[in-house]
Amino acid sequence: MNISSSPAPSLVYDNADSDMESVNSSSPESEYEPIDSQEIYDLIATISDPEHPLSLGQLSVVNLPHIQVIDSGNPDEMAEVLVEITPTITHCSLATLIGLGLRVRLERCLPSRYRITIKVRAGTHQSEIQVNKQLNDKERVAAACENEQLLGVISNMLATCK
Amino acid sequence: IEEYDRKTTLVGHQDRVWVATAHPTLPLLATCSGDKTVRIYSLASTNFPLITVLNDSHKRSIRSIAWKPTGDLPSIALGSFDSSVSVWGQENSDEPSSEWSFLATIEGHENEVKSVAWSSNGYFLATCSRDKSIWVWEADEMNEEFECLSVLQDHTQDVKHVIWHPIEELFASASYDDTIRLWKEEDDDWACVAVLDGHKSTVWSTDFEKLSSELKQAYQNNENPIHARLVSGSDDLTCRVWKRVNIIGGSASGNIPSTFRSDPVSEEWIEDSVLPAAHTRTIYSVSWSGLSGRIASTGADGKIVIYKEENRPENTSEWVIEKYIERSHGVHEVNCVTWVTKGEEEYVISAGDDSLVNIWRV
């Protein structure tokens, strides 16, 4: 591998490969510990349901056995979190809002190496495929997160999180 | 399979970079971002100096950008989540000039504009949106007046991406409805001439094969060749190559106006091949090189994959993986990959969720 010998101008830097970045940003040892499903559950169970005065954990919308984490703990590698939610009713019109709230919560709390997948649990929603597609479409999520009104609703849902 | 030996990184955006794209003839690179700015760099020197930043153009993320291929001075269209499109141009002929000015706002879409693309002759601008529609606009030379020629609503879901054929007045659209559609002008209106069905989930991006000098010659001689290919990348984790095998009606039927024809213009496209599987998460972007004919793909798994076509006996060919880069933007997703040619050298440019733009020497 070949590192450029020319001096780096202010806007540009060269390096041999992406491994260099991890050397530069060496993290404290605690960050090398993988995150487990209990920690994910604790992050999202306290989110408030948008229409009930209860949390998603209390309503069993989120359940510990329905959270999967694939994580080596290595900060240079991508890790995966899969959360399957169980809407309270199969025609729940707020399933996408709840899913978006979960995603916003996890994206704010987890390091950026986590790829987050949020789905409704098989057989728990009449529009399962459409809801799952929407919840995991990066562009739709990004645009939704620029919608002030929607963000207001989500921050109310997240207000009960520690 | 070898790794690339070097990359250069352009730092400056404050949020995820959605698109990086080079001017078709001038040494200019533009990038757009969730930070609501467009940055324009010079590709003329090896340190890729920043020329200008287009600020205060849009209220939300700038999702896509497209250089107008024609005109005395460079100009560029910006498509934003704020549902509008704007056009900007260089003010004077100094080279390179940091003086860029706002030329026009184009409004019509109901919500997020996802992609913008100019036809190769610069006459038309296509824009698409989450509102499921594609608008075709006619541009004047000064980029001041944009007249809407057609609103195309055949897709049943968000239209993610539009791109024009390198020579023909033909464009492709890719959609959340899992299909690709091809569009052509017919009697002052635009019509869908083919639907490419095969992907099992959202199609995020497509790119046409660039034309060899022989094919360009054939076009100039008005031989109306059928040959055209398109590559597509999808949430179903596949890249597919599609091939045009027939053109029905239209100019192929002579000069009879279509109102007197029983057959409207249509094209027959078939799936030519599925590229070797390489991605583990959504494929966001594909690009077909004009110089080497190679294809690059990238996506949420952070990989850049380069494919090349190998000739096989009896006029057949096969796509193989030539190279790949794992974690091209560290642990981040990559939204765009594009080929850039500089003389006989090729670069691959990638744009990531880490706010960075990487330029890879090939």
Order of helices and strands of chain B: EEEEEEEEEEEEEEEEEEHEEEEEEEEEEE
* Number of helices, counting only DSSP H or I runs of 4 residues or more of chain B: 1
CATH fold name of chain B: Methylamine Dehydrogenase, Chain H
Rg of chain B from C-alpha positions?
19 Å
Number of strands of chain B: 29
Instruction: Write down the CATH class of chain B.
Output: Mainly Beta
Tell me the strand order in the biggest sheet of chain B.
1-29-28-27
Percent range for helical residues of chain B? under 10%
Whole-number average pLDDT of chain B? 92
CATH superfamily of chain A: Fe-S cluster assembly (FSCA)
What is the CATH level 1 assignment of chain A? Answer: Alpha Beta
CATH architecture annotation of chain A: 2-Layer Sandwich
In the predicted model, the low-confidence regions of chain B spanning at least 5 consecutive residues are: none
Can you write the helix and strand succession of chain A as a string? Answer: EHHEEHEHHH
Spatial strand arrangement across the major sheet of chain A: 2-3-4
- Total of DSSP H or I helical runs spanning 4+ residues of chain A: 6
**Helix-strand makeup class of chain B:** mainly beta
- Helical percent range of chain A? 25-40%
Radius of gyration of chain A: 19 Å
